[in-house]
Automatic annotation (TrEMBL):
Superkingdom: Bacteria
Region entry Disordered, spans: 86-124
Signal peptide positions on this chain: none
Official protein name in the record: Transposase
Species for this entry: Actinacidiphila cocklensis
InterPro entries per the UniProt record, alphabetical: IS402-like_dom, Transposase_6_like
Start-end of Basic residues biased regions: 88-100
Length: 124
């Protein structure tokens, strides 16, 4: 974990912030609805964002996995990804197979009316 007390003052306790991040991920609540027991929601959000950007969460995951693997708590033979069933989005069905239609020059898309010119009579 990053050192506590970098530039700008002292940081809140890492444990409290991590518990706030885990609570938010587990429940799916908005950041602003985070209970007070985790401290300021903005502190938890900013720390989570900072740690995501600098790779701290990746290092934490690798360390936890390494410890669990050394202790024999991970059965790597059970980890697999099966891609035999892949669904497309519901709007992907029935899409046009040809090139997209480009409207004629001087016509508004989806109409037969010509486009308005901003330099003609009645221009604002």
């Amino acid at each position: 974990m990053p050192a506590i007390g970098q530039r700008g003052g002292r940081w809140s306790d890492h444990r409290r912030v991590i518990n706030g991040v885990l609570f938010r991920v587990r429940t799916g609540i908005p950041w602003r609805d985070l209970p007070e027991r985790f401290g300021s929601w903005k502190t938890v959000y900013e720390r989570h964002r900072r740690w995501s950007a600098d790779g701290t969460w990746d290092r934490v995951l690798r360390a936890v996995q390494a410890d669990a693997d050394l202790a024999g708590r991970i059965d790597w033979s059970m980890v697999s990804v099966d891609s035999t069933s892949c669904r497309a989005h519901q709007h992907a069905a029935g899409a046009r197979k040809g090139k997209p239609r480009i409207p004629e020059k001087g016509r508004r898309p989806g109409t037969t009316a010509p486009t308005r010119r901003s330099d003609g009579p009645g221009a604002v």
